Amino acid sequence: MITLRRGDERGHTQLDWLDSYHTFSFGDYHDPHCMGYRALRVINEDRIKPGAGFPTHSHREMEIVTFVLEGAVAHKDSTGTSSIIGAGEVQRMSAGTGISHSEYNASKTEPAHFLQIWIIPDQPRLKPGYEQRSAELENNAGWWVVMASGNNPNAAVKIHQDAELLLAQLAVGQRVTYRLREGRHAWVQVTRGTAALNDMPLEAGDGAAIDSEQILEITAPNSGEVLLFDLS
After folding, report:
1. Rg for the chain, CA atoms, rounded
2. 51-61 confidence digits (pLDDT tens)
3. How far apart are CA 113 and CA 147, in angstroms?
4. Do 228 and 144 contact (CB within 8 A), yes or no?
5. Model confidence over 100-125: pLDDT tens digits?
6. Distance (Å, rounded) from C-alpha 232 to C-alpha 224?
7. What is the C-alpha to C-alpha distance for residues 30 and 37, in angstroms, rounded to an integer?
8. Which of 105, 120, 144, 150 is the most buried (most CB within 10 A)?
9. Which of these, 119, 150, 121, lies nearest to 36 by C-alpha position?
């Protein structure tokens, strides 16, 4: 079964410096029917104006994954980490027992566009931690790239959950297939362009929950970029 979540159904926060869409309930946007999916709790698509951003704030008991689509994000946190996350890079921050951080557009002239993803960890009271790495997408176009995983040592970053986050960048007419193991579930999110999931057309911002399906075939009638979450 495939359950669609169209991009225009998402929650929306519009501020003078922030344009954010929420696939699941977040902040002032609350929908009791969209509180997350399995261990996946948040997918926010954020666009931040030059020089602006989220001032220091705190989190607990969450794995927070940031994937930058365009521009760059300046990160600082209470572990002493200070970094710039560029386009095509993925960051994992384990909030665990508590972490404070800020996220700003690193540019004074260009907008930043990124996804922030929250995944519920598989154990409480983890030590706060940070990891950042390029996903090397330019060398892996047309294939699944493992962005984050709790089990796969080849993933760009490690998360503390029995879950895997994969990304495929597809040119016109390209196809990728993914086989879900028995008892597993998936969420598919189109980040850019268009795609078809088992012949079901999707556009940027669209998502879909997949239950009781074994084979997922994703094609790009035009060029597209797709995230897939493999979840327990």
Report:
1. 17
2. 999 999 999 99
3. 18
4. yes
5. 999 999 999 999 999 999 999 999 99
6. 26
7. 15
8. 105
9. 119
Q: In what order do the strands lie in the sheet with 72-77?
A: 53-59, 99-105, 72-77, 82-86
SS3 of residue 137 by DSSP: helix
**By 3-state DSSP, what share of the chain in percent is helix, strand and coil, each rounded to 5?**
5, 55, 40
**Among candidate residues 58, 226, 28, 203, the one with its CA nearest the CA of residue 145:** 226
Looking at this protein, which amino acid is placed at residue 8? D
Rounded to whole angstroms, the Cα distance separating 29 from 23 reads 10
DSSP designation for 50: T
Instruction: Note the pTM of the prediction, 2 decimals.
Output: 0.96
State whether residue 139 is helix, strand or coil.
helix
Whole-angstrom distance, CA of residue 173 vs CA of residue 180: 23
One-letter identity of residue 165:
L
Give me the amino acid identity at 6: R
Q: Are 55 and 101 in contact (CB under 8 A)?
A: no
